[in-house]
Amino acid sequence: MPNPQARAPGLEFAQYCQPGRAGVEIFTARFVHHTFDPHTHEAFGLGVIEQGVERFRYAGAEHLAPANSLVMIHPDEVHTGRAETVQGWRYRMAYIDPQVLENISGQTGWWFAQAVAPTSAAQAHAVAQVLEALSHAAEPLAVDCLLHRLVDHMRPYARTALELPTHGRLRFAPVLDYLHAYYAEPQNLEGLAQLVGLSPFHFLRQFQKQFHVTPQQMLMAIRLHRAKGLLAQGEPAAQVAAATGLTDQAHLTRTFARRYGITPGRYQQQLNGADRNLVQDRM
Known about the structure:
single chain, alpha+beta, Jelly Rolls, 11 helices, 11 strands, disordered C terminus, AraC family transcriptional regulator, sequence-specific DNA binding, AraC_XylS_family_regulators
């Protein structure tokens, strides 16, 4: 197993893998210059900052995540990411579908009151070790036991009595449902506004106030998440672009790399096992 700390200073890399449990994806990366566009995951993002400091916008606020802090992102929450210092940041994340998290934990309604939780170096190292092991685990029983350990590490920061959505989010639920259902089709402001009975620009202002992104940014986040799923199934990039409402394969490549820190082709290679031993994605 390669030593991740032995990489040359300043080198950016990104590595995805699926450890053999449906609904789980592991991501390990170091970024210095890369900036993530607004994007979302239909999964909980649970991870640890190993080195440096990340700055990201999430739930309408700016957050700083220094080394030895845990990061907890809710499903469908649009967020960004960039380095706060010239050294960049190195981190590990597990993306776990909500139903899988509930199955592992035996508890429903998981949510986190804070996106960043400073912790001890020992605790951060323990979480990093579990995520590192998940990156290489091949036996299903080992994967499930490691996931259970990860959830145990995160449980003290979670609440399991789900808060009711705010009135604002309930009002825009038909818009989100529509975008998830028709993401591949061209959209216009007037049509989305009609879904909730608002004038177009009043809708735009209220939507952005509620979700901290524009409807177009939300649509692109949904499209890229869908594209990620199709790429994971082995679909050719050109077909994925057409199926998700993107202009062409070049558009997919540009937007995918900005949101996920890796090109569609390299992402597929890694999931297919060609880069299993933590091949580096050079930016």
